[in-house]
Specification:
The protein is α/β, with parallel strands linked by helices. The protein contains seven helices and 13 strands.
Length: 264
């Protein structure tokens, strides 16, 4: 395919909707993954029907909507307006108790309003100060003994990987690349899309994309426990997958799930 022209588009302008809705829906088995993830959340964080749950950096609300289908009342925070609009429309049509709001996950201020909080594959977008600020938002938002659940890749595995892959989306081709830099301890994601018409679209950050990052800091378990305690939260347990029955985290696990609570 001959590329006719090259353009740069920002997260808010193009990539949020493309990645979190169009590309995500094309992933085989993604609905089963969401169902299993939410089952794991409910089991390990002990969420129950009627609980009020906060979902930070909720994307298009895929897991927030599934939590609501299980009888919970969910508020999601997401930086991209297109994802907020999409998730709210799905929730409205399904008559679910879900409300997505546009905002920066470091800056939302709730006061002891929630029984639980989840951050799903969305922790580590900032420096230590910014990531601690996210945990402070969780601490402020939770009621006493409220639980939190943070899901992401196992950093000990992810740091060894240099990953590159293609996916077909809407007749075009998406290139995704991921590299780890040991000097900065950051993993950087890059992505480009060749449309069916031959246009090459690359990610180009725009001023309106403030709060979104292609750089992610994946913390080890001991580092996560330190951050959690710094935010006046309590670490309870760590798991290595989203499968049930729960699997204890080890250095060879695929994922790192951190579960804890706000002390009374």
């Amino acid at each position: 395919m001959e590329v006719l022209k090259e353009t740069g588009k920002g997260w808010q302008e193009f990539w949020a909707e493309f990645f979190r809705i169009k590309h995500r829906q094309s992933i085989e088995g993604i609905r089963d993954f969401d169902t299993a993830l939410v089952s794991h959340i409910i089991e390990t964080a002990n969420f129950t029907e009627g609980n009020r749950i906060l979902d930070l950096a909720c994307g298009a609300g895929d897991q927030a909507l599934e939590l609501a289908r299980r009888g919970m009342k969910v508020v999601g925070v997401e930086i991209a307006h297109a994802l907020v609009d999409y998730g709210n429309e799905i929730g409205r049509k399904a008559n679910l108790e879900v409300k997505l709001i546009q905002g920066d996950m470091r800056e939302e201020r709730f006061s002891e309003e929630f029984d639980g909080c989840v951050v799903l594959d969305a922790f580590g977008f900032f420096d230590d100060e910014g990531n601690t600020a996210v945990l402070k938002v969780i601490e402020s938002a939770l009621k006493g003994d409220g639980r939190f659940y943070i899901y992401g890749p196992n950093p000990l595995k992810r740091r060894r990987e240099k990953w590159k892959g293609w996916a077909k989306v809407e007749g075009g081709y998406l290139l995704m690349e991921s590299d780890y830099d040991p000097m900065s301890d950051l993993t950087t994601d890059r992505f480009s899309y060749v449309t069916s018409g031959g246009e090459l679209i690359k990610f180009l950050p725009k001023p309106e994309d403030d709060g979104f990052s292609v750089h992610t800091r994946f913390y080890t378990l001991s580092q996560m426990i330190g951050l959690v305690r710094r935010a006046d939260l309590q670490f309870d347990s760590a798991y290595g997958s989203t499968r049930l029955p729960p699997e204890e985290y080890t250095v060879t696990s695929e994922h790192l799930v951190v579960v804890g609570r706000k002390p009374n």
